[in-house]
């Protein structure tokens, strides 16, 4: 699974990754009364109560907040690393905020997914790259979401695998030639998460971009759903791997789904190397665009 991540990202690892994108803090005047009313269905936040990543609460200001990281009841307004505002003014069955994939559609895409890969974890991760599936026309937004999720599905067997299944590979992903070494140990950097992030230099680059110390604590990627999704979005939005563009750029600029395959695993699959794997990705992408009610566009193969 992640045994090919070396060829996929080593060429791009010199790019430190973009800085984390922070959304401006909400102000009291920014939320209409209707939004606060729609948030009333969530439980009230309680100081000192344990919350898991993905939990949603209604704060004393009437707004909803989602836990990006598990915490013992920290104040959502003060502890912004643990909490972020959550849009809940949309009607039932519609995307929350600007995301074009509803939870029902997500569940249709991944009927057998591992419970670790929560929809709320994905939603909590979107703030790291707000341009993802939120750039261009409605069709382009849906195509990008479908392309990302189709590749993720292929990488994880339908969001079933959280960690790399071939444990014999675990000790291979430490490059001691890096100045920071492998503080998590020789076997600490195996594939994890939706894109199966591996190698110490990739954990370092992703962590630096996201403001999370993944070099010293790579286990966060398999223990925190929001962090796992953020690493996948980091790769998708900032890394071109063996390709010539990022997955985000490929979809936003209409280069086609085939270019996203090239950026993720093109050195082993594209140009006739493994047509069956390419077809598997394409078929999943076509299925997901159908679920989202849009067309797949052209240039599907690499």
From TrEMBL:
<dbReference type="InterPro" id="IPR016283">
    <property type="entry name" value="Glyco_hydro_19"/>
</dbReference>
<feature type="disulfide bond">
    <location>
        <begin position="270"/>
        <end position="302"/>
    </location>
</feature>
<protein>
    <submittedName>
        <fullName>Predicted chitinase</fullName>
    </submittedName>
</protein>
<keyword id="KW-0732">Signal</keyword>
<dbReference type="InterPro" id="IPR023346">
    <property type="entry name" value="Lysozyme-like_dom_sf"/>
</dbReference>
<dbReference type="InterPro" id="IPR003610">
    <property type="entry name" value="CBM5/12"/>
</dbReference>
<dbReference type="GO" id="GO:0016998">
    <property type="term" value="P:cell wall macromolecule catabolic process"/>
</dbReference>
<dbReference type="GO" id="GO:0004568">
    <property type="term" value="F:chitinase activity"/>
</dbReference>
<feature type="domain" description="Chitin-binding type-3">
    <location>
        <begin position="42"/>
        <end position="86"/>
    </location>
</feature>
<dbReference type="GO" id="GO:0030246">
    <property type="term" value="F:carbohydrate binding"/>
</dbReference>
<dbReference type="InterPro" id="IPR000726">
    <property type="entry name" value="Glyco_hydro_19_cat"/>
</dbReference>
<dbReference type="GO" id="GO:0006032">
    <property type="term" value="P:chitin catabolic process"/>
</dbReference>
<feature type="signal peptide">
    <location>
        <begin position="1"/>
        <end position="30"/>
    </location>
</feature>
<feature type="active site" description="Proton donor">
    <location>
        <position position="155"/>
    </location>
</feature>
<dbReference type="Pfam" id="PF00182">
    <property type="entry name" value="Glyco_hydro_19"/>
</dbReference>
<dbReference type="GO" id="GO:0005576">
    <property type="term" value="C:extracellular region"/>
</dbReference>
<keyword id="KW-0611">Plant defense</keyword>
<dbReference type="GO" id="GO:0005975">
    <property type="term" value="P:carbohydrate metabolic process"/>
</dbReference>
<feature type="disulfide bond">
    <location>
        <begin position="174"/>
        <end position="182"/>
    </location>
</feature>
<keyword id="KW-1015">Disulfide bond</keyword>
<dbReference type="GO" id="GO:0050832">
    <property type="term" value="P:defense response to fungus"/>
</dbReference>
